[in-house]
Write a structure and sequence with these properties.
By secondary structure, the protein is of the alpha/beta class. Helices cover 38% and strands 17% of the residues. The chain has an eight-stranded mixed β-sheet with strand order 1-2-4-3-5-6-7-8, with helices on both faces. Strand 3, helix 4 and strand 4 form a beta-alpha-beta unit.
Amino acid sequence: MAFSPSIIPLDPAIFADSAISDETRNFNALLIKLMTPMPEWWDTGAETFREARRQGRGPFPLAPKSPRAQIWQLDGPGGQIPLRVIAPEKPTGIYLHIHGGGWVLGESDQQDPMLERIVASTGMACVSVEYRLAPEHPYPAGPDDCEAAAVWLVKNAREKFGTDKLTIGGESAGAHLSAVTLLRMRDRHGYTGFCGANLVFGAFDLAMTPSQRTFGNERLVLRTLDIEKFSEAFLPGINDRRVPDISPLYADVAGLCPALFTIGTKDALIDDSLFMWTLWSKAGNAAELAVYPGGAHGFTSFPTTLSRAANATIDAFLARAIA
């Protein structure tokens, strides 16, 4: 049987500066102004930088905490792993969330408004993993904790939530860890039952894609230098970073769930999403790509029109995944 070629209408104009709205352009300029004088986490020390974030010191306001969040504990390979659970009375599914922060920063309670939004828009319970962070706990500690959380959910989801419809996702390092977790669940546990993966501006090649290498030093949230420092902390002494468990871009991704890749055109990780979306599709998996003009790294958490559009697309994807 003859097949027609698949024409993917990704308009190149979306990458032009003329596609960026005035609101997005102005917000990016504000980000650069706010972030340029900030100290570097590797100079202050990771824990000092984390504590400043906890206290709301920095360019971004502290996210309010959900009054209905619960902390559950499970046994992990390095001790207890806290899970932050925000759930409706009768969940329609479960979103296993893995936070970002370059494997060094971030905590499970720093994005409650986002998780509350997903609960409200999809009816799912959100379970966010408090995985161990580098440099105190380098690779494979973080991936091991995320794997343990996924294994626990597969075994206990129906009893705890009344549903075993599972989705997974995260932002930046969280998207990377989500992809690694999907691969580990398939290869180590024979489980391919996730309904969908929400992979938001992820880092999928820790050997560095061209866009990572060439982004430069403009402090629009994530620079080439930041990527290098985060990777050094996460992977100390590891020279071969193209191992699939480290860089999912080099993995066989056959048999994995549908995925949505979200990325902005002003993100140093744009190649990672473009390349991973292609790999995902080539392996025969359903894959969607959402590219946002002028979106900087982390843009989905900002109070802008661009963020609202991206988050609406994410919510709709997650809702479809469990439908």
